[in-house]
Amino acid sequence: MDTILEVKHLRTLLALAETGTVSAASQRLYLTQSALSHQIRSLEEYFHVSLFERKSNPLRFTPAGERLLQLAQALAPMIEEAQRDIAQIVQGEAGELRIAVECHTCFDWLMPAMDVFRPLWPKVELDIVSGFQADPVGLLLTHRADLAIVSAIEEQAGIVHAPLFSYEMVGICAKDHPLAQKAIWQAEDFAQETLITYPVPDEMLDLLRKVLFPAGVHPERRLSELTIAIIQLVASRRGIAALPYWTVMPYLEKGYVVARQIGDKPLRSELYAAVRESQQNTTFLQDFIRIIREQGFKNLPGLSVLE
User: Fold this and answer.
1) What letter does residue 30 receive in the DSSP assignment?
2) How many domains does one find in the chain?
3) Domain presence at residue 70
4) For residue range 71-110, what is the model confidence (pLDDT) as tens digits?
5) CATH of the domain at 41
6) Residues 147-158: tens digit of each pLDDT
7) Which residues form a coiled coil (predicted)?
8) Checking phi first, is residue 255 left (phi over 0); if not, alpha (psi -120 to 50) or beta?
């Protein structure tokens, strides 16, 4: 019989084994849950057998599923290595990938992604353009960077964007702050507070752009360059702040501050990878974007697939 197995099926099986749930596997692969479920159903219908037990948590593979998983574990690394080798033959194995970021907290996940990338592409010179960049796309256009991490899509000739992920922004305050008693903060809760933020333009702060300014709320501001300094100021009741959940989680676990949802519908922010259109098909660049997504969903809490 003709085979139905494709590389995407092998990757699906590996993700299911590594994450233990369909929902987590879909995030790892940057697919919707329905798309992943469709892949599984198509395999099961083709082989006329269930691949895993539906009610187990984490899921357990059936004997048939285990056999296909063994195949995936053997073949998937070989396929990925061959794809990289062929790309290096065709496009050249050396290159340069300079990264610009407009996100102060990007380094929490960017450095691990770079660590995964380096041994796969040892002759690609990987570097971060020094410091926070208020206009990273401008660096792309002037060829001073090759990839920019941005929080919004701004249509620009010669620039294309690849979605990375969305994440929750949470409000943080000291444990004994009055707002610690509220489970959900609304825009008006910020009105009489000192808001501690990074020193960036207002339009780059989603709390201001999406929540406070539309409600006519303009709180007193205090600026800090460093995330740890913001945490310390909040813990000492010098103000409140809004930061990505993954950034504040270690400090929540230590009891330094508390985190609260912002808005009845949780405030979420987005990140995209912007590249020059002429470079968008460069294999090592595409590979780096894939690694960012995979490492993000593997290591950071509270991420969602960004369409």
Assistant:
1) T
2) 3
3) yes
4) 988 888 888 777 777 766 566 556 789 999 887 778 778 8
5) 1.10.10.10
6) 999 988 888 899
7) none
8) left
